[in-house]
Amino acid sequence: MTSSNGDAAEIRRLLKPFLPWMALSSFTGIAAGVATVLLLATINKVLNTSGGLAGGLLLTFVALCAVSLIGRVVSDVSTNLVGQRLVSQIRKSLAQKILSAPIDALERYRTHRLMPVLSQDVDMISDVAFAFSATLISLAIALGCLTYLAVLSFPLFCVLMVALVIGIAIQVVAQTRGVAGFWKARDYEEQLHKAYRGISEGAKELRMHRSRRALVFGGQIERIVDSIRTVNSRAINTYVIATAFGSALFFLLIALILGWAAFRNTDPVVLSGFVLVLLFLKGPMDQIAGALPGVGRAKVAFQRIADLSTRFASPEPHLHLDRAPSEVRLGSAIELRGVRYAFDAAEGSDAFVLGPVDLRLNKGELVFVVGDNGSGKTTMIKLLLGLYAPQGGEVFVDGKVVTPEARDDYRQLFTTVFSDFYLFEDLVADGSGGASSAGLPEAALPYLERLEIAHKVSVKDGLFTTTDLSTGQRKRLALVHAYLEGRPVLVFDEWAADQDPTFRHLFYTELLPELRAKGHLLVVISHDDRYFHLADRVITMRAGRIAEDRARPRLESLAA
Ligand SMILES: Nc1ncnc2c1ncn2[C@@H]1O[C@H](COP(=O)(O)OP(=O)(O)OP(=O)(O)O)[C@@H](O)[C@H]1O
């Protein structure tokens, strides 16, 4: 359970812009509730006076009906407005936080934890927000009825208060137990999302392995789903029992009041009025009790959202979501000087430490980064790209240090195709000086031809017509993006690994040299040692350090 001060502050921050609307909803809801109670008092008066509903009483009745109706409508409309705006603001704010969160923070917060917050928790807020005004009106009616009952007969009101205190105590216990159950269920739901990811993304592997399939279903999904059912049922049952007990208490109370009245010789007019209002009070009371499970769930959902918000509360500084990218150029070289980065240690293992790394990459160079699996190639590239901020040392571009303020602009120097790349369907013009600022669709066609995928995919309305391609073809499409963006530095993380031998040959012997001839700096993570001699330099990583930096003459002699 994460109920920290930070979460409470985050919840307050989320609600702050809506306080005026919430005040309006509360005010009109209370007005509707008070008008309803006054209507009851008027009816009670009419029942006990001769002449019925006429004259001033009729006017009062009509006016109260109008206040009750208008108050309810305004309260409902403003609550709905708050609910919808709150949900849309939460959605936008979470998306912005994710877009500006430091990459390493995102890598630590797993997708199966992210998705339930973004979908389920946000929807829960929306549902509960809708029930808010009805509950508020019921609360106002209940308080109004209680006040009216106190005026009608204070001794009977005291008897009522005793029953009410018992009823509230029971509801508080139910609420505490219910919320604890909802927290538990919510934790299970995270596990369920993880299992769902397993069965969707690992569908092929599961189809091939019956025992694993049985284990995933019986050992994970079934177990988790049953646990959620049990925990949720228990939590809801707690509420149901508390509500049933409240109802029983209510009728017991009426019997008690009737007994008390007979014993204390109470005026029948007061008694009938009291019982009438008391019976009316049951409706709003049931409504309030019925809303409590929703309130419990919303509390859990709000705290999950607040937790996610506080985790990503420190955005990467100076990351501009709204500023047009400035044109960036690479004059001579990018350098890493004494750059160091360490991951948090996983339980039972040592933390991987990269560096210190000293490296200079010159404009127009074709550089291969090689090394064993886990030697730190990708980590070093992420530092080079400005995706990770160095924990020690500095990155320089054209002799100038890349400060945190300049890091986002610096990143616009690069086009990347990671080994776990994400392929966007559209082409986005940017101001980085590439060929991508105008005439994008036409510009893409020759590259599609060149990469031998023009028969599969073309460009329509600024989008690729399909991205349902083989892995190798999708990587070729990612290369089209790289061509079109035309940025000064291109970084490929094992790009050729999924290409057929002919195309792999073309990539190393033609495409890369052509790009180098155009003045690009090319950084290629590769295990293809057959082509190492084509590079200007081959940098070998070992255990997080640069073990070797070989230049072309040595590579050629090695190849010979
Ligand atoms: N997000 C992370 N959290 C913790 N440790 C990580 C993380 N990413 C990578 N590592 C660790 O850092 C080390 C280097 O990983 P890296 O991906 O840089 O290696 P690599 O040389 O690119 O390997 P490969 O050739 O397999 O792609 C690995 O031991 C890995 O366990």
From TrEMBL:
<dbReference type="GO" id="GO:0034040">
    <property type="term" value="F:ATPase-coupled lipid transmembrane transporter activity"/>
</dbReference>
<feature type="transmembrane region" description="Helical">
    <location>
        <begin position="21"/>
        <end position="41"/>
    </location>
</feature>
<dbReference type="GO" id="GO:0015833">
    <property type="term" value="P:peptide transport"/>
</dbReference>
<feature type="domain" description="ABC transporter">
    <location>
        <begin position="334"/>
        <end position="559"/>
    </location>
</feature>
<dbReference type="GO" id="GO:0005886">
    <property type="term" value="C:plasma membrane"/>
</dbReference>
<feature type="transmembrane region" description="Helical">
    <location>
        <begin position="156"/>
        <end position="174"/>
    </location>
</feature>
<protein>
    <submittedName>
        <fullName>Putative ATP-binding cassette transporter</fullName>
    </submittedName>
</protein>
<feature type="domain" description="ABC transmembrane type-1">
    <location>
        <begin position="22"/>
        <end position="297"/>
    </location>
</feature>
<dbReference type="InterPro" id="IPR036640">
    <property type="entry name" value="ABC1_TM_sf"/>
</dbReference>
<keyword id="KW-0067">ATP-binding</keyword>
<keyword id="KW-0812">Transmembrane</keyword>
<dbReference type="InterPro" id="IPR005898">
    <property type="entry name" value="Cyc_pep_transpt_SyrD/YojI"/>
</dbReference>
<dbReference type="InterPro" id="IPR039421">
    <property type="entry name" value="Type_1_exporter"/>
</dbReference>
<dbReference type="GO" id="GO:1904680">
    <property type="term" value="F:peptide transmembrane transporter activity"/>
</dbReference>
<dbReference type="GO" id="GO:0140359">
    <property type="term" value="F:ABC-type transporter activity"/>
</dbReference>
<dbReference type="InterPro" id="IPR027417">
    <property type="entry name" value="P-loop_NTPase"/>
</dbReference>
<keyword id="KW-0547">Nucleotide-binding</keyword>
<dbReference type="InterPro" id="IPR003593">
    <property type="entry name" value="AAA+_ATPase"/>
</dbReference>
<feature type="transmembrane region" description="Helical">
    <location>
        <begin position="239"/>
        <end position="263"/>
    </location>
</feature>
<dbReference type="GO" id="GO:0016887">
    <property type="term" value="F:ATP hydrolysis activity"/>
</dbReference>
<keyword id="KW-0472">Membrane</keyword>
<dbReference type="GO" id="GO:0005524">
    <property type="term" value="F:ATP binding"/>
</dbReference>
<dbReference type="InterPro" id="IPR011527">
    <property type="entry name" value="ABC1_TM_dom"/>
</dbReference>
<keyword id="KW-1133">Transmembrane helix</keyword>
<feature type="transmembrane region" description="Helical">
    <location>
        <begin position="53"/>
        <end position="75"/>
    </location>
</feature>
<feature type="transmembrane region" description="Helical">
    <location>
        <begin position="128"/>
        <end position="150"/>
    </location>
</feature>
<keyword id="KW-1003">Cell membrane</keyword>
<dbReference type="Pfam" id="PF00005">
    <property type="entry name" value="ABC_tran"/>
</dbReference>
<dbReference type="Pfam" id="PF00664">
    <property type="entry name" value="ABC_membrane"/>
</dbReference>
<dbReference type="InterPro" id="IPR003439">
    <property type="entry name" value="ABC_transporter-like_ATP-bd"/>
</dbReference>
